[in-house]
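Example (one chain per record):
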Amino acid sequence: MGRTPAAPAAITQSSPQEYVLSGAWTAQGIGAVTPQLDALTTPAGQELVVDGARIEALDTAGAWVLQKFLHRLEDDAKGVRLRALRPEFGRLLEAIRQQMADQGRTLAVPAIASTTPLERLGRHFEAPLQQGFALLSFVGECALALGGCIAQPTRLRWRPILYNIRSAGFDALPIVGMLSFLLGVVVAYQGAGQLRQYGANIFVADLVGLSILREFAPLITAIIVAGRSGSAYAAQIGTMSVTEEIDAMRTLGIAPLDLLVLPKLLALLIALPLLTVFADALGVFGGMIMARAQLGVGFGDFLDRFVKAISVTAYLLGVGKAPVFAAIIAVVGCFQGFRTRGGADSVGRQTTRAVVQSIFLVIVADALFSVAFSALDL
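Predicted structure:
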């Protein structure tokens, strides 16, 4: 014969100080007991007894309702004693009570007394430090992953690398070329007035060559790539983090760094120096056109002076900055993408942080290069 189903949960008040619980206090059986709990009267200032001997079944839903009822009695009465409850039910009720207490403490933390201005100042400094340490840790993980790929070249994924070279390098040629050309025009135009006063028109080649090759071309290229590709890296990885695709990759045994970070890093290490060379050529060409228009310096004279004034060292110093800038942009963009939590608003916030931080670090690195080159007399 089939087992008789348990009766729904019920509660009766046998006396003003005693409550009797019965039936199945489960998710299916507690539907009718909620109105009964609301209708009960609780005598204030007296010791109450709750009899649980007739409870036939208890699950987490029922234990949650029962614990809330006991908590309500404890607030109004002098004391509450739970009697004759099965040991297994008692253990479940104790676990629910502990969980409710932990949640109460967690929710109460933000409501604690207001902080002092000094404490708020310390917290403002603490957050960037924590993010800096996290970034250093991410750099170390990337270095270990890159070392593993160098030791085992078969781990490299060439298809994503080639795709990122095209998207971050080849597709960026128009915007990099146009801005570099205009920058060369601006530099020559700004210097033309001063050079004309001293009859030193030919020295526009020195001005344009040194400023474009050593500073402006690598810097403007890195800033363009940071805004264009660094933001794309953060948004892509951030979206994958929000949709739990990265967790799925880890479950399948695929290292996210090998698939998502290293191809982007290696692609930028290849593409950014080439973009810098392209920017050098377009920037100098823009300076040549403006030198001829404003100072009457022909293309032949300009190139003749340019070759004499600009050494190979100056050219290589500018191109040598590009791999460092590429590493900064790729690492910061991917790092902020992995830190995305929540929803679409977090993706936008981390993308903005990736662009701002990468541009800031690129400019800081460029300033450090200038100090080091000056100290080394380069």
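Caption: Residues 106-113 have pLDDT under 50 and may be disordered.
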